[in-house]
Amino acid sequence: MQFLRATLAAGLLLAGLALPAAAQSSTAKTDSLNIRKLYDEALLRGQSYENLRYLTGQIGGRLSGSPQAEQAVQWGKQVMEKMGLDRVYLQEVMVPHWERGAKEKAEAKPGKGKPVSFNVCALGGSVGGKLKAQVVEVQSLPELRALPAEQVKGKIVFFNRPMNPTYIETGRAYGEAGDQRRSGAAEAAKRGAIGALVRSLSLAHDDFPHTGTMRYEDGVTRVPAAALSTNGADQLSALLKANPTLTFELEMSCRELPDVKSYNVVGEIKGSKYPNEIITVGGHLDSWDLAQGAHDDGTGCVQSMEVLRLLKATGLRPERTVRAVLFMNEENGNRGGLKYAELAKAAGEQHLAAMESDGGGFTPRGFGIEGPAATVRQLQQWQPLFQPYGSGEIAPGHGGTDIGPLKDQAKVLIGYECDSQRYFDIHHTAADTFDKVNRRELELGNASMAALVYLLSKYGL
Amino acid sequence: MQFLRATLAAGLLLAGLALPAAAQSSTAKTDSLNIRKLYDEALLRGQSYENLRYLTGQIGGRLSGSPQAEQAVQWGKQVMEKMGLDRVYLQEVMVPHWERGAKEKAEAKPGKGKPVSFNVCALGGSVGGKLKAQVVEVQSLPELRALPAEQVKGKIVFFNRPMNPTYIETGRAYGEAGDQRRSGAAEAAKRGAIGALVRSLSLAHDDFPHTGTMRYEDGVTRVPAAALSTNGADQLSALLKANPTLTFELEMSCRELPDVKSYNVVGEIKGSKYPNEIITVGGHLDSWDLAQGAHDDGTGCVQSMEVLRLLKATGLRPERTVRAVLFMNEENGNRGGLKYAELAKAAGEQHLAAMESDGGGFTPRGFGIEGPAATVRQLQQWQPLFQPYGSGEIAPGHGGTDIGPLKDQAKVLIGYECDSQRYFDIHHTAADTFDKVNRRELELGNASMAALVYLLSKYGL
């Protein structure tokens, strides 16, 4: 690209920045200028990217119950203490403690052919074990249920339904394909299988296995469950076509340990006019153990803290109380989210709104609103203030796992929404690393979130 | 991120896919279904990503006049010939032939300190040479013009104004900072300087120097001009603060050679009803030489060809003639764009529309329309058809460099617009490589472009 296009586009953009008629009151003009201040501060002096560099690089993966999760708690507390907030504190919460262990090994042995090794990873919560059995491939839970018992008994069930690439919103494909990972092992065990292999929930074609939480059922044998990469799943499927009776060996040393004491980290700016009305903005501090947990959900944590910093640095003291919360244990239990709501209820706190960032730190698109239709319409009136920044898509949607338990206590739950195309390529894998995060995309998200918090704190609901 | 959010979002998305009232006629329904077909084909069986893999990996950087540019011409022709189009042909065009050569070396020598090496690259079109001189740093052309002559004479002028990070649309920042690269050397030479160094046009902080075209002026001495990386520029600026009289040595072996014969590559599907009305969709086949030219503009080329393939594969034969054009020499001369318009005019061709993709292959956002206000409004009526795909931002904008010369011959020029945040990080550098392109983002763009071409070919203007 040369200059002509860019230069002309610049002029048109300037023209486009003029506020639409609906927003031309002097209040709207003040809001527009204040939001511009938040963006300028985020883009010129943002600290979230360097915070994320530390969290991902110096602490790294931080599964609930791990020493790294504990380090992350202390780090989050220190970062917010240095910001000079009105209050920074921890909320104690007991969390599950599952460990992957050192051994994850898988190999297919076709009749006469050479053994073929596979990259695998245990699904979160799986029991360990050592298996050797034939494999039966299915595309879905209903297909498994329809199979004659003798075709499943004593075997490993291989769930190989891909995420649907034709959905534009990748989260929809993730949600639909997820039953295999979530319930596959239990459903397989009910039919006498001794283990489960699951195609990774990814739209990329690569060699990274994706972990993620799975559930056993009471009264059903707990059998080991592992993910294959998408390439690995394709390869195993091809081997099975050529040799349906091949044997598959799986060995994993993962295990569940007793619950561990951990914490949510909370930082707060007291509201200048209505201190008892609370706006919570959060992400989750825990991550899976395979990588640095950069997009899931380091970005949500540094963004939430940055919202407070932006409000302070721009002098836009909120009229209502604003809290950044780094929730513990979203990935495998949501104990932090449940505890936060429980304590808020016990203290009789009034939550105006809760916002979560847990879809990655990509270019912002808007917000998903989980609340009454009238509230959605009220928030949509602010669209013109967000459109010049490309984040004006305000529509009914879902808040987030951590803030979900606040549903009956908050007037509205809000999910920060950013570009979803790359997220599931790296989600829950060794590839979810700091270098995948673009500084500007992250910073634009920070400012979008801060702008909505600013408006909520000024106008209420 | 766990499942709850994704699953709920999926349901809401489904609801959101219902067409708005304005688009509920049966024609609109047909259009909606046909556009869905284009997306499905793009996402399920797209070929653009593999085409790009070949162009970037097997051919690589392809500056006008280079053997690789010639290979790219033959490759483009073969790809389109295999698609079974109605017509594939080359348009001969003479292009500049500038070569970087083997040597690019730069070193600062502070008084007593150790020499400091810098990554540099010649700006496209620069003369070579070997310089050793003091450096004078300026932030702008006006600042240079205001300096006393003796402060510039015999020195190297160092233009160090960064791109403005507070602009949301990165192209605007690129356009504004670009005068240094474009005109810096000539302006410096007018004041007696012997060379120019320019801060790279990038919003990233890294060690990649960014090349790009620059212009000399008739009657003004042609002095060598090189780019420093953004980190390098910061480092040189700091060195100059500590030691304003340091000497800088620059040696470059670049040179201009005689013009070379090259080609635009054109593929065509004849319109079923109005074959004489033409819709052109294109990107530029040439790239800078430092890397693979993946986002600039390999993506635009494979997208343009894919538009034709999508129309064929879905059976949506266009009523008007649709052409994919791989333009030669956008980067340093635009000779291909000029030749295409010249030949179209000479043949009396009627251009309904010309569309260009030259802003990278990132997630689509919409289209910039360069044409009469009534045409903008007409195209905006189609927004509801694009909104479910996230590419409904249809607004006044700029078409593109290659299609610019068609301005007076086409009813409208259209720039395909995608997320702009990452583009200038890699633009014109060694980092513009295939791995930076996300398959889905590219494919979503292909379908967006094909959808607009489909509508234009059906309804005209």
Automatic annotation (TrEMBL), chains A, B:
GO MF, one example: carboxypeptidase activity
Protein's UniProt keywords contain Ligase: no
Cellular component, GO annotation: extracellular region; lysosome
One Pfam family here: Peptidase_M28
Gene Ontology biological process terms, A to Z: proteolysis
Subcellular location: Endoplasmic reticulum; Golgi apparatus; Lysosome; Secreted
Alphabetical keyword list: Carboxypeptidase, Endoplasmic reticulum, Glycoprotein, Golgi apparatus, Hydrolase, Lysosome, Metal-binding, Metalloprotease, Protease, Secreted, Signal, Zinc, Zymogen
Chain ranges of the Peptidase M28 domain: 264-445
Signal sequence region: 1-23
Domain of life from the UniProt record: Bacteria
Complex and partners: Homodimer. The monomeric form is inactive while the homodimer is active.
UniProt name for this protein: Carboxypeptidase Q
UniProt source species: Hymenobacter lutimineralis
